[in-house]
Every structure is written in structure tokens, then in C-alpha cells.
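New to this. Please check both lines:
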Amino acid sequence: MDKSVTFYLVVFVFIPFLLALVTFIVCGQKRNYFDYLFDTLEKKGWILFITITLGYFLIFELLSILRYLSLHTTLLDLGLYDNKVFRIARFGELSCSIDGHLRATIILFAPLYLIVSSPIVLLTIQTFMLTLGGVLLFYYSQLILNSKAASIIILLAYFLYPSLEFNNLFDFHTDHMIIPIFFAAFYFIEQEKKRSFLLSLLPGLFLKEPLLPSLVGMGVYAIVRKRWWWEGCSVILASLLLLYIQWNFLAPPFWDETHTVTTAAFPTPFSHLQVSPYLIIFKPWLILKELFLTDPAKIGYVVVIAETKLLSEEIF
């Protein structure tokens, strides 16, 4: 239902500001409590890490299975992937991994369907991969921050992130598996392990073609961060080459007569925003109109970000 501007101001401006103000006051007056908390997290870091990680996996694995058993899953996309993996496992129809999308990684799931032919297998894989993302993030943050306490807080923020939990429970998609792949790549970059970096990104090439531009970005990051020219350029070229092959050779046989690259599942990086680089550069007022005049809640988001930035500078 429609909500008034007052509602959005209270929810997205007043309440976040009040919480940030309370945090600022507590940090300024009772720092010893935070010191005690950090000391406790440092001492119990590994126990908390195992407890939080295992707890997330068990809870969301159970929720995912219950959601399926109670008939709350849908054809798109759990039913779709279940059908494709079943056909690959039982009939060897490898074309199911490239019909419309380049997602060859589902071939790896087929052997599991020979043991247990159930969508629960896919739901378990999805929960495991998202949990693995948290594990890799913990190790990566430890490497950067050299603090178990800070890494535990980051791990909690990761597992409590609503978007992660929503996607964990919303059927099945191979897209989410890019999370542990990217965290592994970041970790190996900081460890300066070039071969491990390349191997960690290899599965990402075959998850789904809309993710390939993100891999291009990872290649650019490797070049900028560590001056890994050969490795970075290899990732960039491999990603762009696969994207070209998918658009021009693999996907078209499965399109209908009206389907073109501009109406495919991945037309441009800006299609879901209904904008283009041309509009951003030459007609920025249209973007501002979309941001601020179509939904009052969007103003609240900007205000919250500004408040958080200003108060964080005062606190830290």
C-alpha cells in the first residue's frame, strides 16, 4: 500500500539518525565496554567463527528444505535447474547447460543426482556455497585487518545481510556462487598467489554469462592492485571471449525469431536500470529525477548514507 512522506522520513531518516546518535554517545562515553567486547571477541574468535558459520548453514539449510517441502518454491528457477540437472544426469543432455545461458557448472551437479535425484541437492549446494563465502570473507578480513574481533563482526554483518538471506531462500540460482569465488580471488591476490588466483576464478567463467563483466573487473583489479598484467589480462580476455561466444554462437540456436542480443537475458549492463551511459553523461537530470522524484524512500536512503558517513568520521 502507499505510504506517506512522513512514514519514509521516520523510517529512513529519523530512526537511523537516532540510532547513529546513540552509538556516537555510547562510543564517546563508554569506550571501556567496547574494549571489553573486542577483547572477548579476540579471545573467543575461533569458537565464535565455527559457531556462527555452522549455525548459519544449519538454520538456512533447514529453512530451504522446509520451504521446498511446504510447496513454497517455484518453477523459476528451482524447477528449471532441477529439470536441467536431471536431464544431464539421466540422459546426458549437456546442451541443457548452454540453452539460453552459459551455466556449464551445473554439469558438476549431475553426479549427485545419480545418488539423490531431488531439488534438495541444489538447495544444499546453494546454502553451502553462500556459507563458504562467509568463511573466505573471514580469512580475507583477518589477512587485511589482523584482528579476529573485527573479522567476527564482518562475518556477522555478512550472514545477517538481508539480501544474502533472501537469495539463499529464494529457489536456486547459480549466480550466488560467484560470492565465494570472488572472496577467494581477493584472498589470493593479497597472498600474492598468482596460480591460485587464476584457478579460483575458473569456475566463475561458467556460472552464468551476466557475471562475466564482473570477472573483467576482477582482472582489472589484479592489474591495479598488484600489477599482475599477464594474469589480469588473461582473466579479462577469457571473460570477453566467452561472452562473445555465448552471444553469437551458443545462445542464438535456442532463441525464437524475435530474440536478438538486445532482448536477451543480458543485453547491456544498464538494461535493468532503464538508463544508458549516454543518459548518465548527457542527461544527468533524468537520472536525478528517477532517484528523487519517483519514490520518497530513495531520498531517505541518501540521507542515511550521508548521516552514517558523517557520524563514522566522528566516531572513528
The chain has one domain: 8-250+298-315. The CA atoms of residues 145 and 278 lie 40 Å apart. Confidence is low (pLDDT under 50) at residues 260-273.
